[in-house]
């Protein structure tokens, strides 16, 4: 049905715009008689809005912008994944790819340490920290210099050795007392040029579960104090790291006990879902939502991907120009959520939207000739190919995506966050993850 649109259509000769009667452009051919529709599309794969606005009548502009570019690209979904920079989470790909790689089933040498981190019973932010440390992503002096940031490579604490991750978290001589107060860490006589990941895996292997948990908190605390510039200031503070970490861990565990009992009782009740729920262990959940501002021809899309423990992996607030109906906008949000999940490699994954009509349409399998049909078709291709269930949830269970969509609309730009989310989003996510 949408194949009547094609990027190799002639702008002025073909019937390609969705408007009654002629389906043809009536404005004078300022772009040349033989201009093709693809002339109106930017290299990144979105409508060239300034060009369109300057070349057509207001009514035609609305009609053109109401066509999702997908419809112009024919059957292939390659278009979306490949070139439309508007909504592939481009910079997230690397991150996503690494998540995918390290989550890959057996055969990947990395899967071990990834799973190892996620199984440790410490707060998500500590896991996230450990992950970065293992990936060498902490902005230590050595790592920064390696990324071309003009900076001193030496450790500020001891001024003697390059500040590698292992050095900053463990081997700096200013941390000697901490190493000694962790009686369990009479480990290998490694030096600070050892990869932190190897150090971590070694201790994970030789220590008991409780000691690993404590050690993870200690590392996290050391990094915190290093960032506060406390390395050299006060040996006294450093002395307290281990005792601080063990009481922190105790608090976390007792809070967790309460949490777990709440979870059990709530999952037994048959109440309607009124808030966001954690996805099953070892799965991801994408929440999406759309918002529109019709008078400005703006569409906001919010999407957020969370781990089964509630940790935010990717959040995105997007904004683009189009004259979509609310339902089409919601369908586009779902499509983008799927594309983000697939391109970042989050699997297995489920997707939640609060657009009941759209979700029902998708799950009914009914074909529709309406505007929304082509998008639903794309959604079905991806959700079937990657086995991603799409479910309806009430707005109250979709607040983070809702807030993101509105933020996208307000800020008129595309924003993406990885793990570290802005405060306004964090509070919504905390509410979601609490019981
Ligand atoms: Zn040092």
From TrEMBL:
- What name does this protein carry? RNase H type-1 domain-containing protein
Q: Give start-end of the signal peptide.
A: none
- One Pfam family matching this protein: RVT_3
Q: Show where the Reverse transcriptase zinc-binding domain sits.
A: 98-177
Transmembrane residue ranges: none
The record ties this protein, via PANTHER family, to: BNAC02G40300D PROTEIN, REVERSE TRANSCRIPTASE-LIKE PROTEIN
Would you say which domain of life the source belongs to? Eukaryota
Identify the residues that the record assigns to the RNase H type-1 domain, covering every copy.
287-407
> Which molecular function term from Gene Ontology is one that the record holds?
RNA-DNA hybrid ribonuclease activity
